[in-house]
Design goal:
Length: 1034
Amino acid sequence: MGEAAHARSTFVATFFLAFAALFALQNAVSPAYAHARSDWRDAIVAREPIEGVTPDVQYDKYSLVIKGQRVFLHSGEFHTFRLPVPSLWPDILQKAKAAGLNSVSVYLHMGLTNPAPGVVDFGGYRALAPLYEAAQEAGIWIVLRPAGGIAHWATSEVAGKLRTNATDWKEAWQAYIKGVIEETEPYQISCGGPVIAIQIDNEYTQNPPSHAGYFQDLIDVYDESDIDVLLTYNDFGGGKSFYNGTGSVDLVGLDSYPQGFDCSHPLNWTPVVTDYYQYHLEVNSWQPWYIPEFQGGSFDAWGPAAPGFDACRILTGLDFQSVFNLQLWASNAKLINYYMFYGGTSWGGTPHPGVYTSYDYGASIAESRELSAKYDEIKRQSLFIRSSPAFYKTDWVADSSTGLEVSSNNDVYITHLKNPDEPTSFYIARHRDSTSNVTAAFRLNVTTELGSLSIPLYLDNITLAGRQSRVVVTDYSYGASAYGLVYSTSPVFFAGVIGGRDVLLLYGDSAQSHEATFYSTFDNSMKSQSPLVKVQQTKGNLGSEKRPLVTSTIASGFEGLVTLVRTETQLVLFADTATAATFWSPTIAGKADDPFRNYWGIGTNETVLVGGPYLVRNATLEGEALSLQGDLKDDAQLTVIGPPHLQSISWNGQNLTFEPSLEFSIGDANVYVADLKVASSLDGLQVPKLEVWKYKDSLPEIETGYDDSSWTVANHTTTNIPYKPYYGDGRVLYGCDYGFCENVVLWRGHFKASGAEKSVNLSINGGTAFAASVWLNDVFLGTSFGNSTNNRNIIQETDDKFTFPDGAIIPGRDNVITVVQDNTGLNQTSYDTYDGDTSKSPRGIRGFQLDTGEFGDWKVQGKVGGYKDFPDKVRGILNEGGLFGERAGWHLPGFPTEGWEERDLASGLPNKTAGIGFFVTNFTLDIPTGLDAMFSFDFEQELGQPYRAFLFVNGWMMGKRIANLGPQSKFPVHEGILNYHGENTVAVGLWTMTPGETAAPKLELKLNAAYEGGVGNVEVNNPKWSSSDRRPTK
C-alpha cells in the first residue's frame, strides 16, 4: 500500500505520510565455508514446520523455502481491478516473468467485490480464478492481499469502529473474506496452485487491544478454513506490530518508501536507509527479512503544480533502483515486492481522494502497459538474482560502518554478504553519501579461495558513477562444472546451463572499464572482436594446470556484445548495459504433468537466452524445435543461445530462416541468429476522429415542475458516521446513509418561500478536489470548489453562503435548492490516530440553513438503485454516479440518440451556461489481429477552464478530467474496454461550473504505440443499454 494514492478508499492506508526512518544493520556471522554445489538447487536444511501451515511454504532466517527449495521472492505489485480486462492480466504476468520476477503481490478491492452487505461478486474483473490460472501458466507465485478498498456501505451501516474487533464490523467483513477463501482454496500451493501467502491487513498497529483482536478475528477465520498458506502482515514506520502476541501472523515484513513522493523535484534525493538490518535483528531475526512494499514509484497529486508521472518515473528511476534496491540487498532482504510494478487505472469511483484517475505510479510498466527504462533495470537485477542461488542464503558479515575496511576509497561504502555453505561472497558498493553525483574510483580487497586479492588485477580501479551501486561477486559458481568466477567487477546478467554448456553473461556501463577473472582455458587462437576487449591468462601463480585462470578486461567505450571465452563447455560474454537489456531468458517448462512446471527452480531449470526483440513472453522446446512468442516494436536481429542441433526456430508461429553465429559458436553450434521483421500493418493503423457528437441536457432536476417523488427522502436524524452535521435542523444529509456513497450525488431541498429569503448557507464535504454546484429553482447560484495543489492547500470541505439573485425566489410556492455534488472517494485510516472510523467520511451536506425560514423535505439521488440494487453488475458499483445521463443510461453503448441535438463537444454547453450536458459519439476500429495497440483519449492540455468531464468509453468511466485543477489530460484505455474490431461509443458528461466562461473540451483518440504480438484473444464485455434496466426516462 504505500501511499495516499491507494484507491483502497479506506480499508488500508498509507501514504501522505513520510515514513519514519526505516531501519537496519547487523552483527557479523562467521560463515562455514563449503565447496561448490553439485546442483543448481540447494539442499534445504530440515527445520520444524510452521504450525498450521503447509510444508510447501516454509522459511528459516534466510529465505522462503518453497517445495523444499530455497527461494528469493522477487515480486511486483499488480492490482487486477485497475486493469478491468481479465484477458489482459496474462500480459502483465508474462511481463513480470520476462523481467525475471517470480511473484506478484495482488491487492483486492473489497468495495468492488462486496458492494452491499452479504453480497459477494467474483464475476468479471473481480474474479480470482482467471488471475490464479494465468499466474500458474506464467510460473508466478501470488501473495494475495484482500484488505483493499473498504466497502463504502460499511462506513454507514457499521456502528462499531472499523478495523477493530467490533461485533458488527466483524459481521460486515465475514462474507467477503469467506468468499475470498472459497475462491482461493483450490489455487493455493498445496492444491497445485500459485498462492503462497495471504496478507491479513495493511499497515496498522497492534494497540489498542481492539486492533489486535481484529487481526485475531481474521486469523481465526482463515484457520477455520482449508487455507494453509502463510498469513502475513506489512508493518511500517517502525511500528513493530503483530510479530508476536494476539493477532500475530506467520511472517511480518516492513514497508519502505525511502524517497518519498515529491515528484515535483525528482532529482532531489533523500539518503538511503542505513538501519534496515539492525531493525530486522531487533524485531524478527528468526524470520527472513521481508519487504512487502518497497518503493517502485510514487503517487502524484491533484493540482496544476503536480508534475505528472513521467517525473515520478525519474524520481524513482534507474539511479534510484540501483542505489536503493541494492541497499535492500545489503540489508540481507530476501523477500522484496516493488509497489508498483504495474499501476494501471483508478477508473470510475475507485481513486483515493488525494489522486486522479491515472495510477501509473511511475512504475516499471506504464499505465498503457508499455515497458519503461525502469523495467530494463528490474530485469537486469532480477536475472542476476535468479541466476545466483548462492545469494538466496547469505550471512551479513560487516559493512563500512562496523569495521569493514576493504575499499581503498573511504567515500565508497561496502557491505559484505557471504553464503555460509559456499565460498561465494557478495560485496555491495555504494557512495557513502548515497545522494552523491560524483564519480568515485576504488580498489577492493577481497578474500577468495585463492587467498587475499586486491582487485582489479589489471585495471587501475573500479568505477562507481554518481548515484550508482553495484555488486562485486567473488568465488561465484555457475553452471554444472567446476567453472566459476574468482571475481567480477561488472554485474552478472545471466549465469547457468544452456544446452549442456555453461553460459555467463556479464555487463557494465560503456563509460566504465570492467574486469573479471574466471576459471577457463586460455585460447590463444581466439581473435579479439574489439580492440577495447582483452582476454589473457591471469598473471602470477593464481591458477593451476588443472584449474587455469583467465582475466578479461573491457575498456571504457565498448558497446555491443562480445565473446570473452568460447569452448565446447563454456561461453562467457560481455555486453554494455543497454545491450544486456535487449536479452531475455524465458524458462522452458518442465514435465507436462507437473503443476509447477513453469516455476523456475521448482519445476524447471531450463532456459535459453534470446536477444533483440522488444519482449520475449514464452519459449517452448520440443525436440530440436524452439518456439518463441513475444512482441516487436521495430525490426531486430534475433540472437538465440540455445541447445545444439536446433533444426527449427519460430517466432509467433512463423518459422525463421536462421544460421549459426560464428562469433559465439564452436563445435556443435548453439548460438543462432535470424532477422525479425515487423509487419507493415504497424505503419498503416488508422485512428478515427471523434466527430458527429450528439448532445442532450443532463440537468432536468433544475427545471420548473421537476418530479422528484421517486427520490429518497433524506430524513435521518442519526448516523454511524462520527463526523456530525455542523448546523441545520438535525437531519443528516450524508449520501452513504441513503445508499449513495460515491461519484455524483444530487440533493434537492424544498422550502415554501415567504419572499424574504435572501441566501442559503451550505457546508459541503466531498473530499480533496471535489466540487458542488448549487441552483435555486433554475437559477445558478455558484460552485463550491474543493482543491489541492500538489498536496498543498487541500480543501475537502467548504462552507459557503449562496446569495439569491433578484427574482429567483417564487413567494408562496415550493422553491428548491438543488446541489450537484461530485465525491472523490472516502478517506483512508488516519496515520495519526489509527482510528478506523476516520474512514467514515461524511460525504454530503454537513450544514444547511436559509437566512430566514426552514426547509421542508430534502431528497437525495445517486446512482440508480444505490449500492443495494444498481443494475450494471458487470461494470460494478463504482462505475457510475447520479448524473441524470448516467441514471438514464446515456453513457452505455446502444442508447438511442435519435432526436438529440448535433453539437460538437468542443462547443461546450449552449450559451456558456453553468450546467451539465451529455455528448455522445461512435467510431469504429479495425485493428489487425496480432497487434497490441496502445490508445488514449486526450483532452486539451491547457488548464484553467471551469469544467469537469466524465469520460465513458463503451459504458466504462475511464476518466475524470478536472480542467480547472488538473493535471491529468491523457486517459489510456485498453483493448477489451475498446472494441478493436467493431463499433465503440464515447460519452462525455460535461459539467460547466462557472457561467460565461469558456468550457469547451477538445478530445481526440490517440494511438501512442503499437507492437506486433501481444497476448491475443482479448475479450470484450461491454453490456449495451437495455430498456429493461429500470432506468428513468425523464
